[in-house]
Design a protein that fits this description.
Layout (H helix, E strand, L loop, with lengths): L2 H20 L19 H19 L8 H22 L13 H7 L8 H30 L14 H7 L11 H8 L5 H30 L15 H13 L5 H25 L6 H10 L8 H16 L2 H4 L9 E3 L12 E3 L3 E4 L12 H8 L4 H9 L6 H4 L4 H17 L6 H26 L4 H11 L4 H13 L6 H20 L5 H9 L6 H24 L1
Parallel strand pairs: 1-3
Antiparallel strand pairs: 2-3
Helix pairs in contact: 1-2, 2-3, 5-8, 6-8, 10-18, 12-14, 14-17, 14-18, 17-18, 17-21, 18-19, 19-20, 21-23
Length: 560
């Protein structure tokens, strides 16, 4: 076999093995419904890491110079991906399977929001539910081990995070849990029969509800009260090395906390100047705090019902649909819907979240959900942000599965944040208040580059981080609290957004400067999205190569 064929064989075999170990749903809903839940024991995690180390040894023996250009890109993406998996096990990240934003119990419960398309999927999901007690028990043992060495999210960041568990544990009947919904809907649609529905309700009552009751007792009596008070990742197990690993995983660079902090301060200052200009345009004499206070408190900027907020978001998505082909040559075939998060998750859920087939918009606490931010939010979470990008990646049939289905935060979040800026060109912001809403969102992500290393490496308190976010953005107080707690409990992740956007914007400027009149915005967007999910270094190398090739083609056409 050629080196390229050898690599393809290694990576394809490992990918299938990985899906068999972690489950297809570990990588989202596009790959189908699993009939099992993974083994979460420490032994299983160490066994997987050993296998991945062996795979890395195999690919490191390949003659890279003998690979074709496409295979070299695939190799770079693949190695970074597998190295990240190994590093997570080395830091025993499996002992910390919950944070202020996501937890194993919420990610699994989210599967109940999906649709069961046939009996096979229904039977598969039912087998998952039967395994839930074992799966929860293994996570509990891992969390116990993490707690013993002081490895867990800070106590203050996890307040109230057991509420979704309680909602299931306290259900009077199986029918009143989230888990019953996909089965009752499938029965109503004639997809499953009454016997399967009865079996599902029996398993929910005998396995799912008791498993949640056991987890709730562990969380409230043992885990949450004993979590560390310290918020800094560098003060916990692994110290600075652990925080650097988290930064590298999420922003895919080797930037240090010091460099990220400085980058944040620089961009906070630049965005503040833009905000001053908008405050002049809006008649506030450049007084940004006065304009932000007006926006926070004037009732015109807030929906009065959840339905109004959902309708407004839907209208923004259709506005984009009307101009999509002016900015994108290729669009995804898959469509998405707009839903609300479950009530028990809503108080701690972000404003919005996009995935391959749904845009989840949080209608809880409407005074914290300003309409002036909704256009930017919808661009980011729905289209042309997450729903658009993730769906399109899954449809890139020429790419290997590990580039179509694995989400890389720096790329995905960087792209979504870039689309907020793109909204200016697309005419999506109708007045200075919506423009300020977009800039406030930009500032929010730039502030993350300051407060994340500030809290995790430089001794910032939770209150100082909250005040920094409060004084620089138009974000509501509820959102400020939930966001800072998210950064505390999920070190490094918050840095991915703005770092990713900066790299994409640099590449666009390079393309515009290099190509001049030959620059085509649709070509640029298709080139970026056509890569699938890649680390930033690969993104930069590939887009720079594409720019050079396009410039050479254009020069040849002019000579001809």
């Amino acid at each position: 076999m050629t080196p390229a064929e050898t690599f393809r064989t290694i990576s394809e075999r490992e990918w299938e093995w990985r899906l068999g170990e972690l489950g297809r749903q570990h990588y989202g809903s596009a790959l189908g419904v699993d009939d099992f839940l993974p083994d979460e024991s420490p032994e299983a995690h160490e066994r997987r890491a050993a296998h991945w180390r062996d795979v890395l040894a195999q690919v490191s023996a390949l003659d890279v110079d003998a690979l074709d250009a496409v295979s070299r890109v695939n190799l770079a993406v693949y190695v970074q991906q597998v190295e990240t998996l190994v590093t997570a096990v080395e830091h025993r990240q499996y002992e910390r399977p919950a944070n202020a934003d996501t937890a194993f119990w919420t990610t699994h419960a989210d599967r109940a929001n999906g649709t069961l398309h046939d009996v096979t999927e229904a039977e598969a999901f039912l087998r998952q539910l039967a395994e839930l007690p074992r799966w929860f028990s293994q996570h509990i043992e891992n969390m116990r081990a993490g707690l013993a060495r002081g490895f867990g999210p800070a106590r203050v960041s996890m307040a109230g995070r057991s509420d979704p568990v309680r909602s299931v544990a306290s259900a009077e009947t199986a029918e009143k849990t989230r888990y019953a919904a996909p089965f009752t809907q499938a029965r109503a649609a004639g997809i499953i029969d009454e016997a399967l529905l009865s079996r599902a309700l029996e398993v929910i009552g005998s396995s799912v509800i008791p498993a949640h009751a056991d987890l709730l007792r562990f969380l409230e009596e043992e885990y949450l009260p004993a979590l560390p008070e310290e918020i800094a990742a560098t003060k916990g197990p692994g110290g600075r090395e652990y925080y650097l690993a988290q930064l590298a995983e999420y922003n895919t660079t080797r930037l240090t906390p010091e460099e990220i902090f400085a980058l944040g301060e620089e961009n906070v200052a630049a965005i503040r100047e833009e905000m001053v200009a908008v405050a002049h345009e809006a008649g506030f004499d450049g007084d940004v705090p006065r304009m932000l206070e007006f926006m926070r408190t004037d009732s015109r900027f807030y929906a009065t019902t959840a339905e109004d907020l959902l309708k407004e978001a839907a209208w923004h998505t259709k506005r984009f649909d009307g101009i999509v082909h002016e900015y994108f040559g290729r669009v995804p075939m898959r469509r998405f819907g707009i839903i609300e998060p479950p009530p028990e998750l809503a108080p701690y859920y972000t404003f919005g979240r996009g995935g391959i087939d749904r845009y989840t918009l949080n209608t809880y606490n409407l005074p914290a959900r300003p309409l002036y931010s909704l256009s930017a939010l919808t661009l980011h979470e729905a289209a042309p942000g997450h729903c658009f990008q993730i769906a399109l990646a899954s449809e890139l049939a020429d790419l290997p599965a590990f580039r179509r289905h694995v989400y890389i935060s720096a790329y995905g979040e960087g792209w979504a944040l870039y689309t907020e800026r793109l909204g200016v060109e697309m005419g999506m912001y109708r007045d200075p208040f919506e423009t300020m809403g977009m800039l406030s969102f930009q500032m929010w992500r730039a502030v993350r580059l300051v407060v994340d290393p500030g809290m995790h490496a430089f001794g910032w308190s939770r209150e100082r981080a909250q005040e920094f976010l409060r004084s620089n953005t138009a974000i509501a107080e509820h959102e400020i609290v939930t966001e800072i707690d998210r950064y505390i409990a999920w070190p490094g992740q918050a840095t991915a957004y703005f770092i990713g956007q900066l790299r994409i914007m640099r590449l666009r400027r390079l393309a515009e400067d290099t190509l001049g009149q030959a620059f085509d915005i649709r070509w640029f967007h298709d080139a970026v999205l056509g890569l699938g999910s890649v680390p930033l270094a690969v993104l930069e190398d590939e887009i720079e190569r594409a720019i050079r090739a396009r410039a050479a083609d254009h020069e040849g056409e002019e000579r001809a």
